[in-house]
Amino acid sequence: MILPRRTTLLGGVALATAGIAGTARAQLTIDMTRPSFEPVPIAIVDFRGDAVGAQMAGVIRNNLQNSGLFRVIPSSAYIQKDVDATTPPRFPDWRSVGAAGLVVGQVTSVGGSIKVDFRLWDVVTSQQATGLSFTSQPNNWRRLSHIISDAIYKRVTGEEGYFDTRVAYVSETGPGNNRTKRIAVMDQDGANNRYLTDGKTIALTPRFSPTLQEIVYMAYGENNGPPRVYLQNVDSGRRELLGNFPGMSFAPRFSPDGTKVVMSIAENGRTNLYEMDVRGRQLRRLTNSPAIDTSPCFSADGSQIVFNSDRGGAQQLYIMSAGGGGERRISFGDGRYATPVWSPRGDFIAFTKIGSGGFGIGVMRSDGSGERMLASGFLVEGPTWAPNGRVLMFFRQQPSSGGRAGAASLHQIDITGRFERQVPTPTDASDPAWSPLIPQ
Length: 440
What we know:
The protein has 440 residues and is mainly beta. The chain contains 3 helices and 32 strands. It is globular.
């Protein structure tokens, strides 16, 4: 039976953690420091009980398979067909089909709520690896599936998961010469898509606050007015202008603590970086250059900012103090560099690279060393990090007739450069922004 260690209320979800077997952990573990490894073979049985049990198992399978770190064994291979979530399985049957791990669960109706119990069994050692118990509203079943996926991911890899997250992006519709671009938000797997802007004006570069409650983005004013930076509440839809400046304001991004937004403001032929206090609305200039300084992004600890600038003659990456000053160039490869984004871990900076007739997505360390490219194409751009710093999302645009840009789609890729896959969206999509983990 699952033995709860503690029970807490997690955003309307009551959760209890279970004891974790401490022996032979390596049997169900990926060493993420190794340059190569085989995906972990795992069987995920439809959860018993309520009708959503099969749907929950489907979401978990999809999450783990899409990460590239797991190989989900098809149900057609199962020998033990009826698995009781409250008792140990027949381990020899699961070893026979090559499973290293087995996921089982039970969904029970409790009044107007559902109770979900799940276990991850280590098939090799015949022991329970981890387990969780939840009580929540029935319409939370999809989110519970993501939380369970994160728990499995963490048990096997030793790293935090990223499945219980959202992605904001630019939804694109209409002909190429008259695109409607509006901000949308969805779960990281493409479910629960909804639109935050109405498409009457072009909206670009959405970025989440650390709390996920707000998004900051750039939108053109009514009647093709100049671009302005807006702050919008994700749930209520309330929108406010973040400073009415004489020139354009664009490329906004929150500080790690959510109290500030850094952005570019263009005025009198110059584009410099500015910091604005979100609540007090005090504005402070961070750079003073005759060049174009843009795409700023804070380091994970908030002490530094990376940005791109053509102050040296070509578009390159620079780092400076979060308070301004001490700018130093960190990119020295062939081509131009843009859209730098600091990893939540603080170890890498992702970027877009333009050169040799195409685009690429790459990473480098904060001192500019270790540059390596992960993806390339006709147009690939706009990397954003998963909250665990292990996976990147970006958008890929295909060429159409006459060499023009065609359909645009979102893609995920592991930091190793493997496991690229397309993320489903209802329309063309560009410029993704990954949220932190949803607060529990």
